[in-house]
Amino acid sequence: MKHSDELIQTHPSLGIFRLAALSACSDGALDEETLENMFEQVESGALAGLSPLDAWGEMRPGLMAQKPSNMLSALYACGALQEVLPEVSALFGVPQIADDPPQVDIGLHLLRVLDQAASHNAPLSVRFSALVMNVGKSDSPPEHLPIHYRHVERGRPRIESICRRFALPEDCLDLALLALQECERVHRVSEVRAGPIADMLERLDAFDNRKRFDLLMMLCACDFLAYGKQANYPKSALLYDTLHACSGIDGKRMAQGFPQAEARDALRQARAAAIAKALRSERWS
Questions:
Q1: Domain that holds residue 44
Q2: What is each CA distance from 232 to 30, 62, 248, in whole angstroms?
Q3: What is the pTM of this model?
């Protein structure tokens, strides 16, 4: 797909991001000549002094378009992603363990996750979380690859910094940090023991913040499907079934007349029992 370079001539820095964002509106990637033009401008220092807010203003429509991977691929190819989102740019070429195939390139994988999010008409918070939830993995010790120990600790300050840089709304930060902490745990959740599932639902605030829980499930499903898996995500089905199994438990009523700690434990036990019954599984052992 060939675009006019009029935008670049008129706006030498923002035009780079506009062209990349335009490519996300269709299945056509930018042609080599356009990418080379963009690369030469980045190399010549066209982005020097560019406000992150202005850059994000051009990137956001591309992220919300039908093929956001085209925009990210173009920005990475021309070097602009390294200038405005070095934390994400650094993920390309970094391996991560998977099932089938046995490992993936994290940068290429996040492109597929973004396109899955677009196909699900995901809101900005989900797409942004998909973009940044792995930023703590870019500098994992080489001797541990493709495993990424302590990436959560490295990822949190980076996500917070990105959100400040682009002045993103609180829901983007909130979901991205939740995904950083919990997405891989959701992928590993097992029906063998009900207690850990009850604890996970509590940790995810699934009982009191259903909207955020739904968004996290959407994100986890997109991440799962990006590995080329089947159309349905079994872990979200499991968690929704167990959430439903707990729906008849009234935590406020159980708390009446008991110290807070005792009430919390009683509620936890009741939820675990309900989940164990629904799944015909063990409770805590």
A1: 6-84
A2: 32, 27, 27
A3: 0.89
